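task queued by scheduler; priority normal; single chain, no ligands, no partner chains; default sampling; output format set to structure tokens
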Amino acid sequence: SCALNWPATSCQRQDRAVSGRAMASGGEAGAAVPPAAAPPVAATVNEGGAAASGASTNDSSGAAAATKKGTAVLVLGMAGSGKTSFVQRLNAHLHTQKKPCYIVNLDPAVDNLPYEPNIDVRDTVKYKEVMSQYGLGPNGAIVTALNLFVTKFDQVLQLVETRSTSNDYLLFDTPGQIEVFTYSASGQIVSETVAATVPTVVVYVVDTPRCTSPTTFMSNMLYACSIMYKAKLPFILAFNKTDVVSHEFAVQWMTDFSSLQDAIDESSSYMATLSRSMGLVLQEFYGTIAAVGVSAHTGAGMDEFFAAVDAATAEYHEEYVPLLEQMREDKAAKARAAQDVMLAKLKADRQAAGEVVVDARPNVIPRKTDDDLPTGPDVGPDDAGLVDPRS
């Protein structure tokens, strides 16, 4: 049988001790282990604590703080771009600024984290057990683990919404393989539900030293463009590792196409020709995106990054919230239209059977015509010949 992490008690809304991450509360010694056929996912999602979280179980901030929600920062990027180190640097910077933050780890395959997450997918889903139980490879196991975790994501949303009133920022660290989160159903569910709950900003971390090649730069920009238009959320480009290579060349390529074309002209390959064409297409994309240079190693650019996050949060309230309300209204209108179609079909079926249907009283059927109905102040439903069709 699999060594599953299956808590016996309900989700405890308490912060974990900073000294170590607990493995899903309620798993006492001697507790019954579910059969091996059960999925390797915990019954509940449990919350932990981080040194810089600033979360409190009694939420003494008062009613005034309840009206303001912190910003969720979804950190995405290619494998090796430094996402996890970047999240740690953000956590450390906020800690030095005495600003509370809340961290959610969504990478089930990571072995060690440099920070203490408040919610950890590894506490709920066992990645290696998923691989062995379902016979999957690394990427397939990550996708499956996220799919299993999303089945409990309503609990995560409750915790995130509760903590958003006492934390300025909520950091989400995503899997290293960006495609398994960006283009999977579970990743879309996470991004959309979080964005519908709290203000949300998408951050795409770029490996700056690897972007010195124009073709690699264009590949990253194309990926960033795809993510931005898929998420439809405020978007920030974070050029990481500026302590190794400055990001100024990338900013120049984004703002001055001639400089990018000069760099591309140094190569005559097919990829260079494609990059030149894509550069012209993406000029519109560059004009609507915020780009900052940061270093997860030295902490450079943190103030500029959080200034960009605050500006993106204002953009969320100005543009995304009205869009979200419109989407909700459209969904409600579609539901009402579907209900009207069903009622019209029911009415047509009952009329075809010889029954007379009164729209104002859908739960009753008149047995007499209007000319036969008695009138007067003492006339009741029984005198009018109206009966409950359920009787």
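post-processing summary
- Residues 13 and 159 are 8 Å apart (CA to CA).
- The longest strand covers residues 200-207.
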